[in-house]
Specification:
It is a single chain. With 320 residues, the chain is of the alpha/beta class. The chain has 2 domains: 17-268, TIM Barrel, CATH 3.20.20.60; 285-320, no CATH class. The protein contains 13 helices and 8 strands. The protein has helices spanning 20-29, 43-51, 61-69, 79-92, 109-121, 149-169, 185-188, 190-202, 216-226, 246-252, 264-280, 292-298, 301-310, and strands spanning 35-40, 57-59, 98-101, 126-129, 177-182, 207-210, 231-234, 256-259. The protein has an 8-stranded parallel beta barrel with strand order 1-2-3-4-5-6-7-8, surrounded by 9 helices. Strand 7 (231-234), helix 10 (246-252) and strand 8 form a beta-alpha-beta unit. It catalyses: (2S,3R)-3-hydroxybutane-1,2,3-tricarboxylate = pyruvate + succinate. It comes from Exophiala bonariae. Pfam families: PEP_mutase (PF13714).
């Protein structure tokens, strides 16, 4: 981004040939710099974020359920739904790390391992797995149901085992950052939630994710109590966690901040208004005075034309 006062990983250089997971690990090692990842849920929202030079993206599960299924975040999106969406987003610019929601892992240890292997092979840099029941719900809704701690830890252990198997087969090339998420704060309290996360870290999770914090003290304490493990902050505007800017989160000690509704929120507001205007018969004006061609340019039209020409194609010799 042209001007960014936030101490973030936006300036992180990417080594030639480096995997997205390796880049994310490099970003996490940068002391005093927070990884800032806007929430994206389809190719368009991902392109718009990439055009603003974000150096990490987050694929939101709620946004995936909304865009692919037209449904609320109630655990209806399957592993295949999530993997297909994440794979497409990660492919748009393989240099940029994508952290993707993996919900509960979609079953027992064998299913969790299948999920992790699929995410790794798709080039996804990081994923988070939680301790809700398989028929889960958004972390900012009430009355979430949890699995026993032993079940949660079996999910994390399966994820770590699957990653280590692929690392061994590829001599360390295939990798993914495993983020352990707990939704137990609401029902079990802070100490029990921290204990769950610490046990997940002990068996190989790389990052901790305490969902549903309701006070700034909880935000401050989780970073302190789990140090030196990186902690992720889920900044859901309109959710139950107090709003923190990326700078405030960085100052409290968080190493990753995700904004799941960064694209989804404006769609609810602006597209709904556009539909109302269309229904009422109002004249439709190009947003931002941009026409069809300009919109396609934002989606990589020039790069596609250049690639076609370099390969010897003639489809665009007269332009488009």
């Amino acid at each position: 981004m042209a001007s960014n006062p936030i101490p973030s990983s936006q300036e992180t250089p990417k080594a030639a040939g480096q995997t997205a997971a390796a880049t994310l690990r490099q970003q996490l090692r940068q002391t005093g710099k927070i990884v800032m990842a806007p929430g994206v849920y389809d190719g368009l929202s991902a392109r718009l974020a990439l055009n603003e030079d974000f150096n990490c993206l987050y694929m939101t599960g709620a946004g995936t359920a909304a865009s692919r299924l037209g449904m609320p975040d109630l655990g209806c999106a399957t592993m295949d739904d999530m993997l297909a969406n994440a794979s497409m987003i990660a492919s748009l610019d393989p240099r940029i790390p994508l952290i993707a929601d993996a919900d509960t892992g979609y079953g027992g240890p064998l299913m969790v391992a299948r999920t992790v292997r699929g995410y790794i092979r798709a080039g996804i840099a990081g994923l988070h797995i939680e301790d809700q029941v398989v028929t889960k719900r958004c972390g900012h809704l009430a009355n979430k149901e949890l699995v026993d701690e032993t079940v949660f830890l079996s999910r994390i252990r399966a994820a770590v085992m699957a990653r280590e198997e692929l690392r061994a087969l590829s001599e360390g090339v295939q990798d993914i950052v495993i983020i352990a998420r707990t939704d137990s704060l609401e029902s079990l309290g802070y100490e029990a939630a921290i204990a769950r996360l610490q046990k997940a870290i002990d068996i190989g999770a790389d990052v901790a994710f305490l969902e549903g914090m309701t006070t700034r003290d909880q935000c401050r304490n989780v970073c302190r109590d789990l140090a030196p493990t990186p902690v992720l902050l889920n900044m859901v505007v309109g959710g139950i966690t107090p709003y923190l800017s990326a700078k405030e989160a960085n100052d409290l000690g968080f190493r990753i901040i995700i904004f799941p509704a960064a694209a989804l929120g404006p769609v609810f507001e602006h597209v709904a208004q556009a539909m109302k205007n269309l229904k009422s018969g109002a004249i439709q004006k190009p947003p931002g005075n941009r026409g069809v061609r300009e919109h396609f340019m934002l989606l990589g039209l020039k790069e596609c034309m250049d690639f076609d020409a370099a390969a010897g194609g003639v489809s665009f010799t007269r332009g488009a």
